[in-house]
Amino acid sequence: MASLAPTFGRGAMTNSWTDIKNTDLVVIMGGNAAEAHPCGFKWVTEAKHNRGARLIVVDPRFTRSASVADVYAPIRQGTDIAFLNGVINYCIGNSNVQWDYVKAFTNAPYLIKDGFDFKDGLFTGYDENRRDYDRSTWDYQIGPDGYVTADPSLENPRCVWQLLKKHVSVYTPETVERICGTPKESFLKVCEMIAATSAKDKYMTSMYALGWTQHSKGSQNIRTMAMLQLILGNIGVRGGGMNALRGHSNIQGLTDIGLMSNLIPGYLTIPTEKEDTLDKYMSTRGFKPLRPDQMSYWQNYRKFFVSFQKSMWGEAATAENSFAYDWLPKLDVPSYDLLRAFELMHAGRMNGYFCQGFNILLSAPNRKKVTTALSKLKYLVVMDPLQTETARFWENHGEHNDVNPAAIQTEVIELPATCFAEDEGSLVNSGRWLQWHWAGGTPPGEAKSDNWIMAQIFLRLRALYQKEGGAFPDPILKLDWHYKEPGEPSPEELAKELNGSALEDITDLNDPTKIVVAKGKQLPGFAVLRDDGKTACACWIYSGSFTEAGNQMARRDTSDPDETGAYPKWAWSWPANRRIMYNRASADTTGKPWDPSRKLLEWNGTQWSGYDVPDIGPTMKPDVVGPFIMNPEGTGRLFTRGLMREGPFPAHYEPFESPVVNVLAPRIRGNPAARVFRNDLEQFGDANEFPYAATSYRLTEHFHFWTKHSQVNAVMQPEFFVEIGEDLAREKNIQSGSWVRVWSKRGSVKAKAVVTKRVRTLTCDGKQIHIVGIPLHWGFMGETKKGFGPNSLTPYVGDANIETPEYKAFLVDIEPIAGPVA
Q1: Taking 80 as the threshold, does the pLDDT of residue 454 lie above it?
Q2: Could you tell me the CA-to-CA distances from 309 to 84, 265, 270, 346 in Å, in that order?
Q3: What are the residues whose beta carbons fall under 8 Å from the beta carbon of 368, sequence distance 6 or more?
Q4: Is the pTM of this model over 0.85?
């Protein structure tokens, strides 16, 4: 049995929506904020109007974001790393580098092991049969004192800076144009504008979304821009940062509290089968500092973990049983992500599936495979406020869902749930703000809250274990369930549990006679968590959100001292109500702000003070402790060591379905470290059969698959269409408004054609590339006309690190067809 919620993108803003007003340059790449995040886009408008900020948009389509940009640069989807590596190469070559920041706050000076290298598109240690690397050489040289060795001059050929310089040197403007299709003059204009923010008083912010995450190298797309921002000194500052635009009201909260198969709340990780004891588990997580006097905050991991275990099993989690460590599941594979789950289901190795707030039939790649997989289940449980295509996957809807209901034996159980507007609770926005909301209406019919549904399932399951026993009932029978109403825990109770409380008196670590938090009281923050079982906290990064002072998430104070954009008394931001992460990096090694006009923090000689909660110990000296305290070396990473599966530096790899070969490594198809299931490998198309590069996107008038159930939205965008450029329309004799068929190796769709100037023909490696845009808001349920979605066409492969499916780059063919008879 499996249960999956929508987990197609990860990340959070390092800054906040409101901070965007402080920037000098906005780069929207891998997103379309004006259309997909129109309310948040107001802060871009404020920056342009009040600061004279400029806007760059890099996108395969001329979007509404591009229509108000100062510079628009077209790009072929799936080539962002080549583009950004080219920008890095430009900045290094022209010394557009914030040198003081790079030398002090990044790992540029650190020396890398002699065995590490990169050749013919691959890093050292590749195993073609396993599609994986031996990453042992991807690490620092460690001195006899146990600390990483460094060359502050950045001249040593084995230092990160020199290796990076060599790595990006091939990404010349000419090569970028050849790979990306971006005209050289457009690329150089973008480079010039970005490079200008290497000045200590100029900052750039990056805004991205699913246009970066939904690739087989999505994590590296994001990392490449983060590296560029480190080189420019734009991380941890007002108006800077890496800002992930989350596409759903609580996707951020979902990832925060660990609703992924390999996580527990607060981005802690599930143990593996090899970690059969708590000590083994902790041996690879409580990282010791790699530089003298450096703080490595993950040394507190055990406090976070033990406090989580106490929140789960209460008095039953004791030091004697390693705080119920054996009761946590142990992974036999890296994760049971969506792609792996449906591969198992497709192979007949899964009996049941709980689908909560997720329309999987329209969301997972290769819809034909998804339908076959669902048809092999014994039962499917759908918890949703709406009638979804997933719940009706077994019904025949003609060409829009051509199945034989008599051949499908899956039992489907629908549990009508409430909509967010009918609930009370907190939602976490892209900027990590936990904002409390109250119910705006009552649910219709038999709809029940998710809390009620989940509680009832648990209580009934527990009763069965109590009655019938089981192989190992302890984790169920001893789960701590002390709620006022066990059948429906209240949002406030759950929020308090996430914040954490003291199970015993908590004393000062330096003065045992002083009680910091009395028994039974809410915790003021994660700094008081303990690893001896005296604190319970379900999600350490949320600690401080619901304290003895009350529900901090419900605060609505709009005060903003000196108009910094922080709004520190509006709601609550994780962690510790910090509005800009890594904010220690906004000041130099003496503690003075890089840009005094945009001060965040400053060292006053004895402690840090300023407009935000310091992302460092308040009394830690600026010339001693590095700003990136979640890394054991205290610096931002231009070289990731072994933490990314496809390499410690980002390299350009083509999508698995690409109209051209990888010009830098012609023998390599796709991401060499991405997991590919055998049967899916056979279903990748090639450019000879499918010559056009397709991508998926969203419209302002619809929200995912929800609003097709609303007549107002259905009227505004009633019908499925695909978007093509004028050149392709002429080549294929397609008229705007006529019907077309679009097909890939996995499926076929019919749609109206919208012929537009927004999609232009690109030239890549001497070949003309036509792009087909496919929006995703239609299905066979709801108020809109029945339609298809891009997942009927997309390949079954994901990002090498987090398995987000590659929806943004795939190959299709297109032809005009006769439309349906009126």
Answers
A1: yes
A2: 42, 11, 12, 34
A3: 746, 747, 792
A4: yes
